[in-house]
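Data deposition worksheet. Section B asks for the primary sequence of the deposited chain exactly as it was used as input, without tags or linkers unless they were present during the calculation. Section C holds the resulting structure in token form. Section D is free text for depositor observations; keep each observation to a single sentence. Incomplete worksheets are returned to the depositor.
Section A, Depositor: J.P.
Section B:
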Amino acid sequence: MRERLKERRILVAAGVYDAFTALIAEQAGLEALYLTGAGIAYTRLGRPDIGLVTASEVADTLASICDRVRVPVIVDADTGFGNALNVARTVRAFERAGAAAIQLEDQVTPKRCGHLDGKALVPPAEMLAKLRAALDSRSRALIVARTDAIAVEGIEVALERAERYLEAGADVLFIEAPRSLEEMKAVTARFAGRVPLLANMVEGGKTPLLPAQALQELGFAIAIFPGAIARALGYAAREFYASLRQHGSTEPMRSRMLDFQGLNRLIGTPEMLELGRRYDKDQPG
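Section C:
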């Protein structure tokens, strides 16, 4: 990922929340994945993104994804799940699980989704201590420093916080939830060319929803679409279950589903069965 970010092309990271969505995104040709903490909360817990997900739940999900796909994964580590010592432990655990980049934010614990109201921030010094712990603990993963200060203290404070995080050694800056194109331009005017900038595209969120090419032209290096897959599947699942209840059959939805064979081809069942047969041949007798 470090080498890829030296290129001029923006890196699009598809939001995923488990190994199944990660596999589908990889098969679609996406270059990178973004393991969203919000997505884990939505799908694993059926709850909102308000700090309910634990570090071990994220690490377990990340390990399953990295065991199944080869593309690099950016992982949402929320606030690091505690103080600087907790951050160090989180970074080591996420690296063991396969993270290519680890994102940390400056909200208080428990945090909130970056596009929800009512957020609160830790003092800059506390976030800087967490970043130092993360940088001291990582062996290879990029450290993404996120600030949520725009919603709490405004764009100028957010830029100043980001400047301090960059000085501390952050590899990527993520200034969350700019509320207009002008605020997005303020971010890129200050930092583009100095450090890779990450843009978060949330359907119905606070930031203007732009395509990757437009974000690249503004000066962003990474575009994430973290919760889009949960929203798309939520929409499809609601239609599916309503149809099943109405018709007592899946037949009306068949043209919009994979059949049994199609799903098995997607997840690689034939290849895995063939691998099993090859090992069976090695059995004595």
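Section D:
The chain has a mean pLDDT of 96.
The two ends are 48 Å apart (CA to CA).
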